[in-house]
Amino acid sequence: MPRFIVKGGKPLFGEVRLAGAKNAVSKMMVASLLTDEPCVLENVPAIGDVAIVEELLKTIGSRIERAGDTAEIATPVIATSRVPELTRRNRIPILALGPLLARAGEAEVPVLGGDKIGARPVDIHLEALSRLGVRLELRRGSYRAWAKDGLRGAEIELRFPSVGATENAVLAAVLAKGRTVIRNAALEPELIDLVMMLQKMGAIIELAPPRTIAIEGVPRLHGTRHRVMPDRNEAVSFACLAIATGGRIFVKEARQGDLVTFLNVVRRLGAEYEVTQEGIGFSRPGAAPDGAAPNGTHALRPLTIRTDVHPGFMTDWQQPLAVLLTQAAGRSVIHETIYEDRFGYLNDLAAMGADVSTGTECPPGDACRFGGQECRHVATINGPTPLKSSALAVRDLRSGMVDILAALVARGISEVDGADEIDRGYERIDERLRDLGADISRA
Ligand code: EPU
Asked: What are the C-alpha distances in Å from 412 to residues 42, 134, 192, 261, 436?
């Protein structure tokens, strides 16, 4: 397993440009299957998740040409709509069911992989598809689907605003006959970016309060050119890195509109940000000017955070925030309400000297759907505690980034095993961190 060797304890300074959003680009690549004309995507990141979707599309018959961060994808003919397996797995192939059914009448895709951060069932996806006229069979390792009478518009009420299930329903409804109304839909910015691409392809999609997406099916879609939005999860990782190391990082292309909730948290923590036309700069008061060691860096303030669906505090942000909270003076609480099992990484922070614990009880007055169940979805962090270097094994993408972050804060040399997992979602992370002054190498 490739690993990172990290020598920490140094503030990071400089400028970094965000890559295109992993959780938008992968869905847009699937959306290109909805037309026989070429789609051009700009700002495509060089990450493992994109490579997995490329394998899926090429098996289906797509021609993909890459030039820098631009990808042209054309699928004039569906060579096969049955892809029972791929060499690697993530959570994307199930989203291809709708487009494949629209173009070929039948489809087969591998069951999902992806991070182990809870049970992650797909019942809401399957229920939404069945409302649209899809019949499904779970085979050994794959889903096989038919739409004998074609895809038909329908009323769909999601029991939870799942991002993936909403995307699945949208991708199946755009070419369906008639009108589809998806209630209690997810409205994450990456999903809205996908909707904007589909609109340019000729889809008719309305967004209405509260959490409603209405789609008027059209007989065909055409090719388009679309620039993938910047990755707001990368933005938060770099912001936390600047604040945790007592440095100053300007995150180019970070957009205030995607980060409103996070920016409020930065302010409550006692750290600083500055929004400009080009991006957002993050720092911690008391940090020295560029390049120098931190000087009298202020203690951070503890916080209570609840993760939530957009526009709440995103679940993918709680892990880098936890590293900051180990440096805050007092007791912080993170109430995770999206995934029931997303605190495995706290064991790594504990091994590095953090004072952390988890519990099953929702905080008083803040009940969530995991209350009363045996899932440890509430974390308490007592700070500040110095972090010491350690040998770490990456558990999943976001917690892998926590390992890197904590290793960069800790004094001494840490080894982070599982670079592949981090490469799945962060483009050339070691190179970009070195540009900020980090001592990190790949072994
Ligand atoms: N859920 C169900 N049934 C379903 C679908 C979801 O019970 O059919 C539950 C899940 O088990 C989970 C919750 O609903 O507890 C939220 O799941 P959702 O479907 O919203 O998430 P997703 O589409 O699988 C995407 C991102 C995640 C991100 C979540 C929440 C991608 C590829 N993944 O996952 O990103 O955390 O939305 O915003 O877009 C990451 O990038 O590291 C990552 C995990």
From this structure: 40, 55, 43, 33, 18
